[in-house]
């Protein structure tokens, strides 16, 4: 049953994937409009993607904790 | 799969015979190794400094200049206080995360180590805000827009500590686990583990390690800017 719980915990990846996909689309579109702005948009995009990905990593930590029975 | 929460780095290597004996674990020895490497590298790169820089001095100047420029860009006034702390934090975390390339398990794959880094960053934030800005005004700023916002701002410190530590811990542990699974899977299937682990390690060990070190230092910088802005 803990394996089932760990699998359900990883459903958080759904929202994270959608969020990072939308952010990348907006970043690519804005760079396409104004190619000189690449240096200012890229750090912001990386920061946003890492912050969103952290939520998926929290769910991974929960899955690890369930499997290792802490 | 024995290394589930990264306890492999918590094995006791030897015991310092002071008092009741202080256990020295693998993670501490790995951190000593990275510290020694960084200190020797710093002394070597800055020996024999001349006005017209030699090649190794250019490397040192490039590193220090980039860190100073980024801190000045994002932090503004107090950059000369925090640039050394943020630079050291970034270089130390970079060295620790990339230990996976040598064959050791990175110490940041354990929640105790990353929690200490997270607590350190938040303590720097709190103490520097109290010292550099008026302590009374800092305490009253927690009630600022509406009185009811105080519990949220109070919880904010703990949330930021937890998120900083858990982000670094989870990313590095996931990389270590996947690399271990790939190695053991290839060995069990009687395929020599050459080539495929190297290609995977390019993303999981190198890219993820560098990105997480950058994100940790950059987020500490953003929190400092948010608290110290005029």
Written description of the protein model:
The complex is a heterodimer of chains A (70) and B (230). In chain A, 84% of the residues lie in helices and 0% in strands. Chain A is built from three helices and no strands. Chain A is an all-alpha fold and 70 residues long. By secondary structure, chain B is mainly alpha-helical. Chain B has helices spanning 26-45, 55-75, 79-97, 111-132, 135-140, 150-188, 196-228, and strands at residues 12-16, 22-25. A two-stranded antiparallel ribbon of chain B has the order 1-2. In chain B, a hairpin with a 5-residue loop joins strand 1 (12-16) and strand 2. The mean pLDDT of chain B is 88. The chains are: A mainly alpha (70), B mainly alpha (230). At the A-B interface, helix 3 of A face helix 6 and helix 7 of B.
In short:
The complex is a heterodimer of chains A (70) and B (230). With 70 residues, chain A is mostly helical. Chain A is 84% helix and 0% strand.
What key phrases describe this protein's structure?
heterodimer, A: 70 residues, mainly alpha, B: 230 residues, two-stranded antiparallel sheet, 2 strands, 70% helix
